[in-house]
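Inputs:
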Amino acid sequence: MLRLNNVEVVYDRVILVLKGMSLEVPEQRIITLLGSNGAGKSTTLKAISGLLKPERGEITTGSVEFAGERIDHRGPEEIVKRGITQVMEGRRVFDDLTTEENLLSGAHTRRGLAEIRTDLAAVYEYFPRLAERRTLKAGYLSGGEQQMLAIGRALMARPRLMLLDEPSLGLAPLLVEEIFQIIQRLNRQEKLTVLLVEQNAAMALTIAEHGYVMENGRIVLDGPVAALRENPDVKEFYLGLTEVGTRKSYRDVKHYKRRKRWLS
Amino acid sequence: MAFFFDLFVNGLMIGSMYALVALGFVLIYKATSVVNFAQGDLVMFGGYIAAALVVLYKLPLAIALPVLLGSMIALGFIVERGVLRPMVGQNVISVVMVTIGLSQVFQGSAAMLWGAQTKSIPLPIPLEPYVIWEIYISPVNLVAALVSGVFLVAFAWFFRKSRMGIAMRATANDQQAAMAVGINVRFIFALSWAIAGLAAALGGVLWGNLIGVDTQLALVGLKVFPAVILGGLDSVPGALVGGLIIGAVESVAAGYVDPYVGGGTKDFLPYVLMILALMVRPYGFFGREIIERV
Ligand SMILES: Nc1ncnc2c1ncn2[C@@H]1O[C@H](COP(=O)(O)OP(=O)(O)OP(=O)(O)O)[C@@H](O)[C@H]1O
Ligand SMILES: [Mg+2]
C-alpha cells in the first residue's frame, strides 16, 4: 500500500537526515518503526505526509508511493485527501479549540455533513472520554485525552493509512495500554492500516506484525515482530534487556560499541 | 447626565467603526502573524473606490456596493499572494517594512488614480438627529453602527461556527498541525486578507461618508493600534471591545476636556490608554498570554 524507495531527506539544503530510507507497509497491517532519538523516525513520517516543507526539509532523491501512485512532492492536503493522515509527535491538538471543533477540523477535506456527523459519533464511541468533554477547550484536556483527541481528529479524515508518531509519549502505562488497544481495534474493525513510530518498543512489538529498526537515517534491521523480539540487539537497545533478562543501563559502554557497528 | 450619555452613545457607535477596521488587522495578525501597518490604507483605498464609483462613474449605490466589495476582496487576495506570500519566513522587521511600504503605495496610487482633493461619498442618510431620552443620535453614526454590527456578528458566526472558520482558528493555533489535517494554510492566509479587505471596504464607505475621502482617511488606521492593544492583538472579540472602548473614551473625553484645552484630546488620549495598557497588560484583555510571537 505504501512504499518508500531509497528516500533521502535534507533539511535547510545541507543537513542530510534520511540516507536512503526504504520501507513497505502492506494494506490492513500494523507496521512499527523503531529507532533511538534522532534516528529520523519523525522525518520519515513527515516525508510521507508532506509536512517537511514548513520545517524547510525536502525529499531530494527516492520516491514515496501510495496505492500505486507517487505522492512525494505533493502537498499535505492532497495527501490527506488520498487517505493518509499523520498523528504528529507531541499530540499537537488545537488547544484554543474545543474538543469537538478539533474533531471537526479533522474532517476539513471532506464534503457531506451527514457522514461527518456519523463519523463524529463513531469517534466518540471509540473515545467516550472525548464525548464527555466535547465543549471543553482541548488545552484543558489531560495528556491522555489529548492523545485520544489527536487520534480521533486524524480519524475524522477517514484515512486508509494512519501514521502515528509516538502515541505513548509521556503517558502512564495504563493509558498507553488503552490507546494501543484502540489502535488495534481500529486496525481490525475499520480496516485501518497503521505505521506506528514508537520509543516504547515492548508495546509496539506486541501489536504490530512487522517491525523496522532505523538508525542514523536508514533501516538497519527488519522482520516479523517475533523475530525482532528475539534479536539480541533489539533486546538490548530497545527492550532494555540483556541476555539474562535484567534491565540494563543506557550508559553502558558496550551499548555505544554495538551501536557503532550499525552506524558504519 | 444627558450630555455624558450623548457623548458615550455616539462614541460607542464611532467605536464600532474602529472595531470594523481593527477586525481586519487582528484577523491578519492571528492567521498569518503579519502586523499589517497598511490596514488604514486599505480602508482609505476602499473609500476611494467607493467615491470613484459613485461620484466619478455615477453608478447607483446598488451596483457600486457589490463592485466595491468584490474589488476589495480581490485586492486582499492579490496583496497576500503577490506581496506577503513571498515574504513567508522572513524576519518580522522585513515584513513590517513591507506593510509600511504597501501603505505608501496605496496612498500614492489612490491619489494618482483619483486625485488628492477630498471627495464625499453621498449616502442617502438623513441629517436630522434622532432624539431619544434627550440623547441626540446622529443617523450617520447609527447607520455606521448598524452596518458594523451586522458585519461583526456575521463574521463572528462564520469564525465560530462554520467549518472554514474552524479551519482558520486551527491555522492560527498551530500551522503545521493544521496542514496535517489537510487544511490548505495558504488559502487560509489569502482568505484572511480577503476578509480584511471586505472589512476595509465597509470601513472605507462609512468613514469616508463621515470625514470625506482623501489620503488622510488612512489615519483611521492609527486608531486601530490602541484598540487592538487594549483588546489583545490576536483576539477577535478583543478587537470589538477595544474599538468600542476607544470610541467611547475619546468621545467622552473630547466632550469634557476639549472646551478647556482647545481640542486635540481625541487624537492623543487613545495612545495614552495604549501605553498604559501595554505597561499593565501587554497581551490585552482577551489576548493570549503567550506572546512570544510578537
Ligand atoms: N527541521 C529540522 N531542521 C534541521 N534538522 C532537523 C530538523 N528536524 C529534525 N532534524 C534532525 O534530524 C534528525 C532526525 O530527527 P527526527 O525528528 O526525525 O528524529 P526521531 O527519530 O523522530 O527522534 P525522536 O525519537 O527524538 O523523536 C535529528 O538529528 C534532528 O536534529
Ligand atoms: Mg520523533
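Residues A 11-12, 15, 17, 35, 37-43, 55, 57, 89, 199 surround adenosine-5'-triphosphate (ligand 1) (CB under 6 Å). Flag for discussion at group meeting.
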